[in-house]
Design brief:
Layout: H1 2-18, E1 29-40, E2 43-49, H2 54-59, H3 62-69, E3 76-80, H4 82-87, E4 93-103, E5 109-117
Parallel strand pairs: 3-5
Antiparallel strand pairs: 1-2, 1-4, 2-3, 4-5
Amino acid sequence: MKKIMLLILISMIVLPGCSNEDKKENYPIYEGTLVYKKVENDKYRFLVLQDIIKEDLENGDLNDFIELAQDQPEASYYFVDKKDYESIEIGERVRITADFNQQESLPPIRTAVSIEKMDE
């Protein structure tokens, strides 16, 4: 009887650990145009808008972009790593996989998990 209880106890501890598979997170994916870049306190940040016309991109400033972002639900700032910051230029279309967490501001601030350039 003691052996059976010991076996049950061991199996209750070992089996859940063995069946714990890595679950792939289904992070949200956003697409848009990079309209603004900034480095501040060694933090790299992009502002990405869903839609922007070429004239607004060329002639706009940060305040204009923020105003445009108010009407675009997926417009957001993204914290990115230095490599992505240096390899992607303003005006390029990007697809960003973001972390689930975001800071509630308008536009929101998210952390990029990965970024890829999109072909025009």
